[in-house]
Amino acid sequence: MIQVGSDPEIFLKNGQGKLVSAINTVGGTKKFPRPIAGGSVQEDNVLLEFNTIPASTCDEFVRNHINIMKSISEIPVLKGLELSIQATGEFDEDELSHPSARRAGCEPDFNAWTMSINSPPDLSSTNLRSGAGHLHISTDWMGDERNREGAVERCNLVKALDIALGIPSVLMDDDKVRRTLYGKAGCHRPKFLSYGDKYNGLEYRTLSNFWLKTEEMMRWAFENVEYAVSQTNEWVHELNKDKRLADAVQQTINGSNEGMAIDLAGHFNLEVLVDV
């Protein structure tokens, strides 16, 4: 069994097309998000973040995202503001005056390829912010995160997600700036006993929010999580045999290398949506 949820980040724009801070708008925090129909919403730095209810089917996954974005758009305090799905944006200085606007996420994330902690970006000297499209994934076969075997299984799945989702994203996501801040290959967080204390899980953090733009891309995201789960053992076996292939996957994502992405998409038989 697989369940997939998400916690994407989206920008706010006013009627003049200016990016505006989400601080002191909808409320909600990482620890205490604001419940709304379809999930919850919170302020994350100067962006809005929402959390969807985990889905077991593709139709449910798409419906959850459509419903929650509709719910957010109807929050009274956001009247007159546009929910903007974009991977990066530059804020004017006046929108970054609050201390929270200069603070990166407090929890570390990890690199599945090196099994090491990633260094957080320094937001104190840049007005650039990024909108993520994190996916939360739980399975009934993933081992307990608290022992090495479970950690290895988690990292193996993240490598497969890099192949199934990360590589096509290089061709589907027209933003090449976000990975200067976030979203390198293998980027994830473990999620202990996710979704009702039933399964161990993970948060895949490589993708931007581009896949929220259409229902077709939402379906692509869910279906390629399923594909990654089904191919994990086969792909990881191949990666372990061929270090150059493993290096190519990482270089493709980290460098947004479209030529390498085309070659690898063919090698791994990956679906790439065109004209998105």
Task: Describe what you observe in this structure.
This protein is 34% helix and 21% strand. The protein is an alpha+beta fold and 276 residues long. The chain has one domain: Creatine Kinase, Chain A, domain 2. The chain is globular, with a radius of gyration of 18 Å.
Q: Helical proportion? A: 25-40%
Q: Helix and strand string, N-terminal first?
A: EEEEEEHEEEEEEHEHEHHH
Instruction: Tell how many strands the DSSP assignment holds.
Output: 14
Enter the CATH topology name: Creatine Kinase, Chain A, domain 2
Distance between the termini: 30 Å
Keyword list:
6-stranded antiparallel beta sheet, Creatine Kinase, Chain A, domain 2, 276 residues, 6 helices, alpha+beta
SSE topology:
Layout: E1 2-6, E2 9-13, E3 19-20, E4 34-36, E5 39-44, E6 47-52, H1 58-73, E7 82-84, E8 88-90, E9 110-111, E10 116-117, E11 128-130, E12 135-139, H2 148-172, E13 187-193, H3 194-197, E14 199-204, H4 215-241, H5 243-254, H6 258-267
Antiparallel strand pairs: 1-12, 2-3, 2-6, 2-7, 4-5, 5-6, 8-11, 9-10, 9-13, 12-14, 13-14
Helix pairs in contact: 1-4, 2-4, 2-5, 2-6, 4-5, 5-6
Summarize, please.
The chain is of the alpha+beta class.
